[in-house]
Predict the structure.
Amino acid sequence: MELTQNLKNELFKKACDMLNFSYTPYSNFKVGAALLCQDGKIFGGCNIENAAYGPSNCAERTAFFKAVSEGHLKFDAIMIVGGPEGKIKDYCPPCGVCRQVMMEFCNPDTFKILLAKSENDIVEYTLKELLPLGFGNADLQK
């Protein structure tokens, strides 16, 4: 699917809306994500913290798990926003665990990761650019 400016704006708005649902009583660093499926459906996700830290979940993985749990397995892009108290001040790249989850479901050469400071300040990477030597299903077949 072509990432037109209108589609990027829609993804940005959805990711920003997800900041409102972020549960971050420990870090106060809110993250929102909007995952674009190849069929055009968009799933939102927010980060959810836990007092034990390990059970916490990032916004990106929340979006992926929601989509997969509803039968969606093909994805084109994800928009990620975040910042202290939900105020977007800088780009918010995905952590290594989220990149690995993306590797499970996405083509690293074509899947787009969009990081935004505002609707007009968006940078775009492929998964391969952010995870150059990613480990995936094909590696298990060798």
Q: What stands out?
A: Residues 136 and 142 are 11 Å apart (CA to CA). The chain has a mean pLDDT of 97.
